[in-house]
Amino acid sequence: MIVTLLLEKTVEAVKELYGYSVEPDKINLEKTSKEFEGDYTIVVFPLLRISRKSPEITGKEIGDFLKQSFDYIESYTVIKGFLNILLSDRYWINLFLENYNKQDYGRSEPIEDAPVIIEFSSPNTNKPLHLGHIRNNLLGYAVASILEANGNKVIRMNLVNDRGIHICKSMLAYIKWGNGEDPSTSGIKGDSLVGKYYVRFNEEYKKEINELILKGYSQEEAEKRAPVLLEAQEILRKWESGDPGTIQLWRKMNGWVYKGFEKTYARLGITFDHVQFESETYLLGKELVKEGLEKGVLAQKPDGSIWADLTNDGFDEKVLQRSDGTSVYITQDIGTAQQRYDHYHPSRMIYVVGNEQNYHFDVLKSILKKLGRNWADLIFHLSYGMVELPSGKMKSREGTVVDADDLMDEMCETAGKITTELGKAKDLPDPEAGELFNSIGLAALKFFILKVSPKKNMTFDPVESIDFNGNTGPFVQYTFARIRSLLKKSGIPVSEINMDGDENSLVLMKSERELLKYLALFPEVIRDAANDLNPSFVTNFCYETAKFFNQFYQEVPVLKESDQAKRLFRLCLSMFTGNTLKSGMSMLGITLPDQM
Predict the structure, then answer these.
(1) Residue 398: left if φ>0, alpha if ψ -120 to 50, beta else—which one?
(2) Domain limits at 422?
């Protein structure tokens, strides 16, 4: 890799010129600023104490050494303390020849190491997936794909939160007001049907709280004493004690939800290697809590509840088991983490969960360490910001969320409308046009969400996401389709487009060189995205690559080029660009149509 070679040669230069050994990581090498000519810049200021000469002389001496000892340097300039190095066309052409027809360009060989577990989605079975879940799913799936491209073995994990008081709230509402309806009789998707009853519970709960407040109770007392909440808590106790009727209803309603989830996941293109259920891991968590109590690292209070005192770790006390013997949310997380470690012995356990749970994961790691699980440091919380619509925040319990299914429908309808208005699908028959609109709509959704760094809160604008001229998925899709059309018009089957060996006379045009320089960054982009767990690196690389290609396409003739070597080179460069875009976008779960 050119960066490594430049660092090695600079180390040689310092040793040869000044008799001083310096480590490569002490050399400040960066990409040259756009306002100066060059590809890479060595900042010579830190070397002045070694050279004992001015910045200009030091830069010139090192530049002369590099140019004489490294064939790929075309020229250099020294501006104050910055040595700007311009690589030769031959370097970029050789890099191109080595990689242009590689389908796996930029991807690393598999690493012989323990797997990385990445948990994402993790829905509750009391409501359908919504816009917040979409960000979670897209982020988790993209990070997993990028890690795989970086050579890691990855296990995509989904933990379904299928038990707890929130599930019991939906169950109670269905018992009271369901009248025996089901997805087949109501015509409502199973997860949406259960979500309807979760909203109904909270409507009734609010009414009862207000009634108790009018009777003289405080807000806090009313929230605890509301009859529907007490009934829901009783259902939870029945569930944990294995009451047959409660278990039967729970299984039936969860079954409706699972079928609904499956349809949503399929449409999003999301798959998992393993699915865990909280109902199957919380008991192990309770066993570990019992173990901690017996060892004296946890404490039981007079009411029978069990707590972890985390004050020495900078946290509060944390309840792990209620006085009635029922477990809390973190109890199952303890059991789940233990189960994953025992089964997979992973190198990392990544949890893709919103930033409102930052404290939760700090506490989880602290409790596991208190229980003697030093592997708790393998846990990493990939915290992401909230996603909103221009209209504002969403609240599940109030029924103001945007369902994932409804949002995808809207995206595809909007894509169809805009695409038709622009005349981009006029030659396609209806079935193919429908598939294209679906592809464009989902690409717009995924790209818009993934181009934002995970830690940032974001506002998703459906219309803005389908701008064919902006930083969007459809823009990249259209660029890819343009490439495929160009290759098709060449009259050469894509599988047979190759350089014929007559490339020694090639002299790169500026836009060809800029495009090649950017394509050369792809391996580095994958590595950085994997290290930072940040798909926006790949997303924005694809956008910039598309921009560089369109600049090249506008400035340089391809099919009309009379010189055979130049024509073939430009076709192969176009193919290289298309393959790289396809590879990068696939990591984001985005398909690229051949025709638009």
Answers:
(1) alpha
(2) 404-587
For residue 399, what pLDDT band results from cuts at 50, 70 and 90?
Answer: very low
Residue 158 lies in a domain: yes
Distance CA 324, CA 342 (A): 30
pLDDT band per the 50, 70, 90 thresholds, residue 496: confident
Q: Specify the pTM.
A: 0.91
Helices then strands, each counted (H, E), the chain: 21, 14
Give me the percent of the chain exceeding a pLDDT of 70: 98
Report the C-alpha gap between 485 and 466 in whole angstroms.
21
Name residue 141's amino acid. Y
* CATH number of the domain within which 568 lies: 1.10.730.10
Angstrom distance (rounded) from CA 407 to CA 409: 5
Show the tokens assigned to 36.
């100066």
Written as one letter, the residue type at 415 is: A
Rounded Cα distance, 458 and 220, in Å = 33
Co-location of 429 and 371 in the same domain: no
pLDDT (0 to 100) of residue 98: 93
Which structure tokens are listed for 583? 């590879």
Residues 353 and 302 in one domain: yes
d(CA 301, CA 219): 26
> Which residue carries 């343009």 as its tokens?
482
Distance CA 535, CA 473 (A): 14
Nearest to 350 by CA among 378, 330, 331, 375: 378
In a domain, 93, yes or no: no
Cα 511 to Cα 558: distance, rounded to the nearest angstrom = 13
Tens digit of each residue's pLDDT (9 = 90 or more) over 54-96: 999 999 999 999 999 888 999 999 998 999 999 999 999 999 9
